[in-house]
Structures are given as structure tokens and as C-alpha cells.
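User: Sequence recovery, please. Input:
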């Protein structure tokens, strides 16, 4: 299977001004940077984008700016997950109104919902959205595991599913999802949560949501290309490099990502509480790691300098 949505998914952070308001102008620059550096689509606001730290009005305006800035160059997916189905429906309806390609949807937060309730949640929210959907599976965040039975029902009964994001980082689960989508006969990509591509692509994975692309897009692109061409010696060396980079950006996430972006000439402000900014020691460590990994010398600086894909 060669899913239409295979590739790297851009998942930008949300930029904030000094007064803690959303910086929509800088967000538009982020979208353009990701598009020019080869992402297959953009999804926002994911948790990396502090979706749970923002009001629904802020999320809606970010959705509008996302679609406007992407300008049809890549598909745009709006993360609409909420604890309540009706709350998610409101965001999905707005995503359709502003012209987004689709939505990203988790099971309802917090509630230990039955399989029937989960299926109804996906049906109802999807029906209100633009028509396409990425199913987001993250049991640690939602307290709900999408078992093969209910996931199979969602795939069968909810139209417009183009991808599944599996953030379990559990190879048995990921492999089961790949097998399930392959046997469905539908054109569905399966993404790993972040850039563990060497282990996921050989079993049927299609790409990943990216935590690194706003800092080091060439590093991610090189790993994806090596994995897709089955150049495993090159992919293995690159995966080790990406893993070291992930240890940096996932530390005090997503605060350290924002600091690394500033080091690359793409400042996006601080995070909102309860996420605190990096300490001086953490900033020095991150800068040293970027130097050792060659990011400071080999990756785009500022908002230009597109990389090849």
C-alpha cells in the first residue's frame, strides 16, 4: 500500500507575544516555513502547539490562519479534540467553515467511555467537520486505548479517514494498526507519534508527526528518505542522530523546542504556564547539543532557506 498521505506531518508550536497573546503573524511564518521545507501536511494545534493551554476562540483563529497561510499548498488538519463531543463538534464545524482539509480527533479526554460511545463520538464530530479525519491514538493522554475491535469499527463506519496517528510507541500496537489498515482495503496512512521512522516504516508505517521539523527539517527529511528507500545502514545512522535530537526537544516539551527555534533565528516566544521556560543550564545544554549534531551549521536559519525534499 502507498497511502496518499504518506510523509512528514508538520505540527507547529504556537507562538506567543511578550504579553502572552497568540502571535498570529509569526504563526503564518511557521506554516510557510514548514511547507517550504517539505512537510506532507500540517496539523494544528496539537499538544506540541499547547492546544490545552488555549481558549477555543484562539484555536479557531489559529485554524483560520493555518488555512490562509498554507494557501492550498498542503492539506491542513485542525486538532479538535475535547473532553465533550459537543465541544469538539463546535471546533470541527469551524474547521469546515474556514476551509480546512480535515480534523484530528482523539477519543474524549478523561471519560472511560464504552466502545459504543467512542464510535458515536467519532461519527458525530466527523459529520460536523470538513470530511477528512486523522484518528489520534494516545492512551497516556486520554486514558482510552483504541482496541482493535473499536478501531476496526471506526475505520469501517466513519467515512473520510485518511490516517491514524499512533502515539503509544509500542511496536506490537503499531504493527497491529498497520495490519488492520492494510486489511481494510482503504487508503489510510499510519503515522508514528514522533520521528521513530526506522522501526515503523518497515512494518507498514507511512511517516510521522514531527517534533523536530521547525528546528531541523533536513535531519527529518534525510531520515524519511533513507527509510523509504530501504537504505538501512544510512537510516540507522540517521535514526540515532534523530533520537539524540529528540532527547533535546522533548525535554521540558515544548519549551525547549521554542528555545531551539530561537537559536535557529526563528523566535516564537515562551510557553504558557504550567510549562516553564528553560533554565540557563538547560539553554546551554540545548545549544551545545545542536552544535554537536551539526544543526547550527547544516539547517536553515531564519524563516527562509528551504531544503530539498
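Assistant: Recovered sequence (309 residues):
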Amino acid at each position: 500500500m502507498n497511502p496518499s498521505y504518506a510523509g512528514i506531518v508538520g505540527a507547529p508550536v504556537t507562538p506567543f507575544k511578550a504579553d502572552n497573546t497568540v502571535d498570529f503573524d509569526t504563526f503564518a511564518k511557521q506554516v510557510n516555513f514548514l511547507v517550504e521545507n517539505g512537510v506532507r501536511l500540517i496539523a494544528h494545534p496539537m499538544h506540541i502547539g499547547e492546544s490545552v493551554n488555549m481558549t477555543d476562540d484562539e484555536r479557531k483563529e489559529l485554524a483560520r490562519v493555518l488555512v490562509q497561510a498554507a494557501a492550498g499548498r498542503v492539506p491542513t488538519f485542525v486538532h479538535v479534540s475535547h473532553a465533550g463531543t459537543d465541544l469538539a463538534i463546535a471546533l470541527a464545524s469551524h474547521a469546515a467553515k474556514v476551509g480546512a482539509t480535515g480534523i484530528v480527533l482523539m477519543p474524549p479526554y478523561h471519560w472511560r467511555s464504552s466502545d459504543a460511545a467512542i464510535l458515536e463520538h467519532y461519527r458525530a464530530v466527523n459529520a460536523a467537520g470538513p470530511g477528512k479525519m486523522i484518528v489520534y491514538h494516545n492512551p497516556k493522554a486520554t486514558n482510552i486505548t483504541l482496541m482493535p475491535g473499536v478501531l476496526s469499527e471506526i475505520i469501517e463506519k466513519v467515512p473520510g479517514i485518511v490516517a491514524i496517528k499512533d502515539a503509544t510507541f509500542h511496536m506490537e500496537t503499531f504493527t497491529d494498526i498497520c495490519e488492520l489498515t492494510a486489511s481494510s482495503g482503504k487508503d489510510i496512512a499510519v503515522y508514528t507519534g514522533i520521528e521513530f521512522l526506522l522501526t515503523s516504516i518497515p512494518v507498514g508505517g507511512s511517516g510521522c508527526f514531527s517534533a523536530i521539523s521547525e528546528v531541523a527539517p533536513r535531519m527529518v527529511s534525510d531520515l524519511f528518505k533513507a527509510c523509504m528507500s530501504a537504505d538501512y545502514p544510512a537510516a540507522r545512522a540517521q535514526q540515532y542522530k534523530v533520537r539524540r535530537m529528540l532527547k533535546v526537544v522533548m525535554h521540558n516539551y515544548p519549551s525547549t523546542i521554542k528555545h531551539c527555534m530561537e537559536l535557529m533565528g526563528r523566535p516564537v516566544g515562551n510557553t504558557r504556564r504550567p510549562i516553564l521556560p528553560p533554565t540557563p543550564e538547560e539553554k546551554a545544554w540545548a545549544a551545545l547539543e545542536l552544535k554537536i549534531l551539526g544543526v547550527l551549521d547544516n539547517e536553515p536559519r531564519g524563516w527562509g532557506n528551504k531544503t530539498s525534499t
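The longest helix spans residues 232-249.
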